[in-house]
Write a structure and sequence with these properties.
Helices cover 13% and strands 30% of the residues. With 516 residues, the protein is of the alpha+beta class. It has 2 domains: 3-34 and 79-250, Immunoglobulin-like (Sandwich); 260-464, Sandwich (Immunoglobulin-like), CATH 2.60.40. It has a 6-stranded mixed β-sheet, with no helix packed on it. A 5-stranded mixed β-sheet has the order 15-23-22-17-20, with no helix packed on it. The longest helix is centred in the N-terminal third of the chain and has 28 residues, at 51-78. Keywords: Copper, Membrane, Metal-binding, Oxidoreductase, Transmembrane, Transmembrane helix. Belongs to the multicopper oxidase family. One of its GO terms (molecular function) is copper ion binding. InterPro entries: Cu-oxidase-like_N, Cu-oxidase_2nd, Cu-oxidase_fam, Cu_oxidase_CS, Cupredoxin.
Length: 516
């Protein structure tokens, strides 16, 4: 098999020289027959191996553990920067010099609180991670549904790096029935465009039972990013996680603590079925094609509660959409802060279509980063986050010690079908909530404080809010980047024209750019 064909199938060619850019032609055919070479080679080797071969194999198997232990001891003694990753949990014995070791298998809570022991350094290195993708029943809000988990969890494990590092991430696809790719959202992919994870564009899918190793550098980048599937609507079913790039030379204000906040919408039906319905000429939830259905629930850091007493079925356009009937109520996310401390919240929207307002009761925020770009602080009581966007905000824990609600509120005025599907979200005010507790306060005590008015243009604590219109980002000229970059030279003939169109074609809704 040629190196080009092997690369397109997801093989790791790094051990055999430079990996070639994958070919995306005939992806379906290539993904179907990927296991054939393995099967043929296996039968051939089994039929030809003799007793001498088995003796060598057995001896090697006995010596391998000892060799591995010696290698690990050598790396620890020499301060190697190679990162060993546990095949399931995504973290392992990670060494950063002779006197420091990153936590072994940090919990999901520690990862979301960035309490992994990661060392921020200006010395670039290669960091290795392993992501195992499985399809399992999971109940993020109490209702169980088939989901795609990353190392047994959703959100997936935290990936951390320093600016200038090289990331080497092996994705093992243990799903029995679906190919996949992983996209590194916001990463520039300088000279590594084939590692972008865009299915059918930069690579073919990783077939069931196969793996692919992504390798790219993060030189010149810092801030908040995330990774997710780029096949169909798989990330809606759980295939996503945070990616944080640290920089010892950050320009943003210093803080005493950091936390990740990932929020998004939840559909209890399989996302690929919803996507298929969405692309049909007569979707079940609306009379017009191209309309996005309202979600069944909202999540904050992969969890939320459900109203188990409500009907398990939702009706759209006089068609009943069945919901899972087993419900355990779910739970909400909780985190703790120290009084007087400055905390950086890294906001990531993994939403499919729902825009959110993020806020914390009684606490003002300062926006300091937008999509991986450090900006001069922008005060606000809330942040409008569209699907896929990332922000960093700084909050000072300067209120009365107690429990306060963290709110990720769906902006229902942006819903394409505002009159439908609201009954299941109404009991929760169309928001996913968490609890922020001051240290020493019993987290079970009723929260204090009040929510901010998300429509108020003027707030006494910060004067004018920066948000002008609902369903809109910040005014383009408001954020001021803190790092100066040379503008690209634009010639008089450097014009590009785009026409976007959505139409029915053979009973299927298709979207095109310039007719393609």
């Amino acid at each position: 098999m040629s190196a080009r064909r092997r690369a397109s199938l997801g093989f790791d060619e790094s051990r055999h020289g430079q990996q070639e850019q994958p070919v995306t032609r005939n992806c379906d055919l290539l993904e179907r027959d990927v296991s054939i070479p393995f099967i043929k080679a296996r039968h051939k080797s089994q039929s030809s191996i003799g007793w001498a071969g088995w003796l060598i194999v057995c001896s090697f198997s006995l010596l391998t553990p000892s060799a591995f232990l010696l290698l690990r001891t050598f790396r620890q003694q020499t301060g190697s920067s190679t990162i060993f990753d546990d095949a399931y949990h995504g973290y392992g014995d990670q060494t950063q010099g002779n006197d420091f070791a990153i936590k072994v298998n940090p919990t999901q809570s520690e990862q979301l609180d960035l309490q992994t022991g990661f060392v921020v350094s200006s010395e670039p290195t290669t960091r290795e991670y392993v992501l195992n993708l499985t399809r399992e029943n999971y109940a993020p809000d109490g209702f169980e549904k088939p989901m795609i988990l990353v190392n047994g969890q959703s959100p997936g494990p935290l990936i951390e790096a320093n600016t200038g590092d090289v990331l080497r991430i092996t994705v093992n696809n243990f799903m029995p029935d679906a190919s996949t790719t992983v996209h590194w959202h916001g990463i520039d992919q300088r000279n590594t465009s084939w590692m972008d994870g865009a299915y059918g564009i930069s690579q073919c899918g990783i077939p069931p039972g196969s793996n692919f190793t992504y390798r790219f550098n993060v030189t010149g980048q810092r801030g908040t990013f995330w990774y997710h599937s780029h096949v169909s609507a798989q990330y809606t079913d759980g295939l996503y996680g945070p990616l944080i790039i640290h920089d010892p030379d950050e320009k943003v204000p210093s803080v005493g603590d950091e936390k990740i906040m990932m929020f998004g919408d939840l559909f209890r039906q399989n996302a690929e079925l919803i996507a298929s319905d969405y692309l049909s000429s007569n979707p079940s939830w609306g009379t017009m094609f191209g309309m996005v259905p309202p979600p069944d629930n909202l999540l904050l850091n992969g969890m939320h509660i459900s109203d188990c007493s409500s009907s398990p079925a939702l009706r759209f356009n006089n068609i009943t959409r069945e919901q899972p009937k087993n419900c355990k109520a779910g739970s909400i996310f909780r985190t703790w802060v120290k009084a007087g401390e400055r905390i950086r919240f890294r906001l990531i929207s993994h939403s499919t279509a729902t825009p959110f307002w993020f806020s914390i009761d009684n606490h003002t925020l300062e926006i300091i980063e937008i999509d991986g770009v450090e900006v001069e602080p922008i005060p606000s009581t809330r942040v409008f986050v569209n699907p896929g966007q990332r922000y960093s905000v700084v909050m000072v824990a300067n209120q009365t010690a107690g429990n306060y609600r963290i709110r990720a509120t769906a902006d229902t005025s942006c819903f394409t079908l505002p009159a439908l599907g609201r009954t299941n979200l109404a009991p929760f005010n169309f928001e996913a909530t968490g609890i922020m507790s001051y240290s020493g306060v019993d987290s079970r005590v009723t929260p204090i404080g009040s929510p901010w008015d998300l429509e108020a243009p003027v707030i006494e604590e910060i004067a004018n809010e920066p948000w002008i219109l609902s369903c809109r980002d910040l005014p383009f000229d408001l954020p001021k980047p803190m790092r100066k970059r040379n503008a690209y030279d634009v010639g008089e003939r450097n014009y590009h024209y785009f026409t976007f169109q959505r139409k029915r074609e053979n009973g299927v809704v298709r979207t095109s750019v310039n007719g393609v």
